[in-house]
Write a structure and sequence with these properties.
Elements: E1 4-6, H1 11-16, E2 22-27, H2 32-47, E3 52-57, H3 62-67, E4 75-80, E5 83-89, H4 94-100
Parallel strand pairs: 1-3, 2-3
Antiparallel strand pairs: 2-4, 4-5
Length: 102
């Protein structure tokens, strides 16, 4: 499954009202660790079509970042049933990202 671009307009429908779990990457285009994490998330999405992954650009959607207490980027937030289940700050490897889905 491809990665979903999330913003204020679609966040509620795609994340909070979703009946499927979703991993959300809060990132910034200028952030070095975010750039390192991006291909890892692409690989996870490509190899696991049942996993939903979304990205929020904190500069474009600063209101969402504030609402979920995002203080550093990248921050990965795993939502299930519209609620935060797990949160991880910093660039991570593929194995750690896959653990979030378990």
């Amino acid at each position: 499954m491809s990665i979903i671009h999330l913003n204020q307009g679609n966040f509620e429908k795609e994340v909070l009202q979703s009946d499927q779990p979703i991993l959300v990457d809060f990132f910034a285009t200028w952030c070095g660790p975010c750039k390192m994490l991006a291909p890892v998330l692409e690989e996870v999405a490509a190899e696991n079509p049942g996993y939903r992954i979304g990205k929020v650009d904190v500069d474009e959607s600063s209101n969402l970042a504030g609402e979920f207490g995002i203080m550093s980027v990248p921050t990965l937030v795993f939502f299930k049933g519209g609620a935060i289940q797990k949160k991880m700050v910093g660039a991570r490897g593929k194995a750690e990202i896959l653990e979030l889905f378990k």
